[in-house]
Amino acid sequence: MMTERLFVAISLPPAVRTALTAVMTPVPGVTWSQPEQVHLTLRFLGAAVPTTLMNDLVKRFADVRVMAFILPVEGVGAFPSVGAPRVIWTGVGHAHPRLFQLRQRINDAALGAGLKFDVRTFLPHATLGRCSEHSGPAVTRWLQKQREFVAPPFRVESFELYASELRPSGAVHTLRDRFELTA
After folding, report:
1. DSSP 3-state helix, strand, coil percentages of the chain (rounded to 5)?
2. What count of other Cβ atoms lies within 10 Å of the Cβ of residue 57?
3. I want to staple 78 with a disulfide (CB 3.0 to 4.6 A). Which of 36, 85, 113, 176 is the partner?
4. How many H helices and E strands in the chain?
5. Where is 101: in which H helix or E strand?
6. Coil, strand or helix: which one is 87?
7. Alpha-carbon distances, residue 136 vs 59, 131, 143 (angstroms)
8. What is the pLDDT of residue 84?
9. How far is CA 144 from each of CA 17, 102, 117, rounded to the nearest angstrom?
10. Which residues touch 39 (CB under 8 Å, ≥6 apart)?
11. Which one-letter DSSP state was computed for residue 132?
12. 3-class secondary structure for 28-85?
């Protein structure tokens, strides 16, 4: 059976990517994401989603109805919040209620198509980089320096379905479909 590694995300506009690129300065032990690959993940659908589900997923995602909304991009942090950092991220402040509504409708559509996935608290963020096990002090300094980070807010008018291929050089994301929000 053919499978794909799939996720649903919101793409970031060029102005946000430019602001993010400006803070991705060299930090020992940190590998920054390629700016064109940075996105806000709404739902990881799985590492081995059967391709036979693709048509049903696309149909269900096309039926998702949420009004477009403005999303801030602000703040930085690391996961985990205690101990050695593994991921550096930027957040969306207090976000927007429609972001959480969109996430829930995407979850409902994916469940309706027969997918099963983990149930975790949704912490909306865009991954900026990955950390080595010895990067802690340098990451702490970077986080302190960038604590007031703010990028331009943007209007979310669509969400996307991506396939992700893991390679030694990093993940490569391929757009599978785009779904417009209502005006």
Report:
1. 30, 45, 30
2. 23
3. 85
4. 4, 9
5. helix 97-112
6. strand
7. 44, 8, 10
8. 87
9. 21, 32, 34
10. 9, 10, 11, 12, 126, 160, 162, 173
11. -
12. CCEEECCHHHCEEEEEEEEEEEEHHHHHHHHHHHHCCCCECEEEEEEEEEEECCCCCC
Q: Which of 158, 181, 167 is nearest to 8 (CA)?
A: 158
Domain 3-180 carries which CATH code?
A: 3.90.1140.10
- Residue by residue, pLDDT tens for the chain (183 residues) are 899 999 999 999 999 999 999 999 999 999 999 999 999 999 999 999 999 999 999 999 999 999 999 999 999 999 998 888 999 999 998 889 999 999 999 999 999 999 998 888 899 999 999 999 889 899 999 999 999 999 999 999 999 999 999 877 777 899 999 999 997
Beta strands at 69-79 and 30-32: parallel, antiparallel or unpaired = unpaired
- Which pTM was predicted? 0.92
